[in-house]
Amino acid sequence: MNKKLLIFLLILALGLSAWWVLSKDKSMGPVGEQSLSSSAGGKAEARESVQEMFENADSFIADRKLAEAKNVLQKIISDNPDFDKIEEVQQKLEGVNMEIILSNSASANNIIHQVEPGETLGKIASRYGTTVNLIKKKNNLKSDIIRAGQKLSVWKGKFNLFVDKSQNTLMLKQEEEVVKIYNVSTGENNSTPVGEFKINSKLENPVWFTKGAVVPPESPENVLGSRWLGFDTMPGYGIHGTIDPGSIGKQATAGCVRLKNSDVEELFDLIPMGTKVVVVD
Q1: Is 138 found in the same domain as 165?
Q2: Within a domain: 107
Q3: Domain that holds residue 272
Q4: Domain shared by 196 and 117, yes or no
């Protein structure tokens, strides 16, 4: 089982404590006295039921019923963590979560905003605590030009990031819900600082300043990759891309959090300035 899945399951397992208590109490009664054959039959039925749920989730995804698919996938993970396709379930759930964010499908955090005279994408993004790039993606906009009266799908949910250095993972969270888990690299010799930070700078194709040298974005020596997300109270530290994707999953950086370029570009479009980042050992 990979690290991402293990962490994902541990988080969801926190919500199962009440279920375990009830299960333990029930096991002392007649249910605990059932024959082995009956127990085996029950397990087989349970596996069949989970497989049916899994197939239902696929049907919901195919029909673009994303909220329904999400509910089914979450239930499989929380109730059946030993399902033999649990890694595939997790991947599907992460994919559905991202589709909900990027689409204009109805959800609790998705609203329709009618553009007022004089508004810009920047003003709308600031009003709802989102990004211009996310608004453009959700509405298939090819430019920043909008018109009064135009209706836009806008995400108003609040993201935060959680970095676990011991597992070399970064969680994208919506409030307390885990949306997606990314593999990352952290600092050699445990050099990535721990604590709570905020993103106070966002740069596309950043220049790398190192030991008095200026390394341009297009240079194959620029270790920052395609995006930079800087920490407020730790100048020089942040989250960025890479020119060495083989290092992902290891303690290999000078102290920053490193992702594959495709992953950091995805995060860059989602999280606005001021996003909270928590880093733990």
Answers
A1: no
A2: no
A3: 160-280
A4: no
pLDDT in tens, 94-128: 999 999 999 987 788 999 999 999 999 999 999 99
Q: Do 150 and 54 belong to one domain?
A: no
Specify if 148 maps to a domain: yes
Residues in the chain: 281
- Asked if 141 is an active-site residue, the reply is no
State pLDDT tens for residues 55-83.
Answer: 999 999 999 999 999 999 999 999 999 99
154 is catalytic: no
Total count of domains within the chain: 3
Catalytic one of 173, 240, 258, 260: 240
Q: What is the mean pLDDT of residues 172-179?
A: 96
Active-site option among 7, 256, 259, 277: 256
Last residue of a domain, one of 155, 187, 218: 155
> What CATH number corresponds to the domain at position 241?
2.40.440.10
